[in-house]
Design brief:
The protein is mainly beta. The chain has one helix at residues 8-36, and strands spanning 38-48, 51-54, 60-65, 72-73, 78-82, 85-88, 93-98, 105-106, 113-116, 122-128, 141-146, 154-161, 171-172, 179-180, 182-189, 202-209. Mean pLDDT is 85; it is low at 21-33.
Length: 210
């Protein structure tokens, strides 16, 4: 007896159904993997921008400072005059310190002004060597929260791990009296999308690994 032929419509419906099932399996697998992904939590983290110290190239007497703390400045903007030298901003940034004492003598090792470059902000996290440091690698995905914004989740990636231990107070492991060193993890994130972050804000991170 001849088998009934499958209509074109039926074939199309079966193919579509198969495609949907595949998509569900892929998405389900991804969600399952995400649910079992391991991570290292680090509570001690901050939003940090590099500090730029501005001092005269040659010794001179401070004549005038043209900016104040909190001012936003642009590259090339005049900031202060020391002797015959005009100090200018090397990058766009925000003034965080001014040593506004006209008449004081400054040299190349004494900053008249300090500023930060918010465009280079990163999340810096401090982790003890025995708290999962060995599982963290450059390129690992990161989720983090910023205390000022509650439980809202942000994302980033591990950009750098300090090659040497931090110069800080040594913590001892009670069980064997061995020193526990601490290291810094630098996390890169989409800075332009998070202008609300301020230098020095406290944060917490989770570094995911396979």
């Amino acid at each position: 007896m001849e088998k009934p032929k499958t209509s074109i419509f039926a074939k199309s419906w079966i193919q579509s159904l198969t495609g949907i099932i595949v998509i569900i399996l892929v998405v389900g697998g991804a969600l399952f993997y995400k649910s079992i992904s391991s991570y290292v939590s680090v509570e001690d983290a901050i939003i940090s921008s590099p500090v730029i110290s501005i001092a005269p190239e040659t010794p001179g007497t401070l004549d005038q400072v043209y900016v104040k703390e909190g001012d936003a400045v642009v590259k090339g903007q005049q900031l202060a005059r020391v002797g015959a030298e005009i100090l200018t901003a090397k990058v766009d940034g925000i003034i965080i310190f001014t040593n506004n004492t006209p008449g004081q003598v400054f040299n190349s090792s004494l900053a008249v002004i300090k500023m930060i470059d918010p465009n280079e902000s990163r999340v810096l996290a401090t982790i003890k060597e025995n708290s999962g440091l060995s599982k963290i690698a450059i390129g690992n995905p990161v989720s983090f929260t910023v205390d000022a914004f509650g439980s809202k989740q942000y994302t980033g990636v591990v950009e750098e791990i300090s090659p040497t231990a931090n110069d800080t107070n040594i913590v001892f492991n009670i069980s064997d009296k061995r020193a526990i060193q601490e290291f810094t993890i630098k996390v890169k994130y989409d800075v332009p999308s998070h202008k609300e972050f301020k230098n020095g804000m406290s944060a917490k991170i989770k570094v995911f690994y396979k």
